[in-house]
Here is the input.
Amino acid sequence: MFRLVLGEDAWHRLAPAIRRHYDMPPTVAATQILHGVMEEVYHAPWIKPWLLLARFFDALVPYAGRDVPVEVVNRTDPAQPDNLFWHRTFRFADGRTALFSSRMEPGRPGEIVELLRFGVGIRMAVAERDGALVFTARDHCWKIGPHIIGIPNWALLGDAVIVERALSDGELRLDFDIVHPWFGRTFAYRGRFTLPSSR
Here is the structure.
């Protein structure tokens, strides 16, 4: 999916570790598991009620913390070959666990749509920048059947930017920030992940 959305030139400019992360065959059921540690999981105190509501959609993370172990499971499904499925498990030191599940599908040229339960999601432009993969939120959305209704970023948590860059051939860094144009930083997490060994 990402090769299709980015185009061949941009795909090959990505660092090898980034390509390994997303080069999963769409015509078979494939799974890739990454383990990592989030150095920071942050949210502004005033958005706590919104994050608790978001748990109904298995979205984001309602707790804050540091050095949080995370497991990320990516998978493909030949019945939906244009989709990439995500299941993230955050394990906090006090025993609490948070799940964040979604699927990504191609959107308009140069973008992907990340969808949660009930069709709630976000449309993001995807680009290669100095070997990194950069996602920039165009808007939030609600998908009903084939139709997508856009929701301005300012109406929810703000503008999201995700940067995934390679630290080595087997390790990635992820920085995810949401900043509201009026209220500042609302949500963020950042950490390092290890790719499974090459087969």
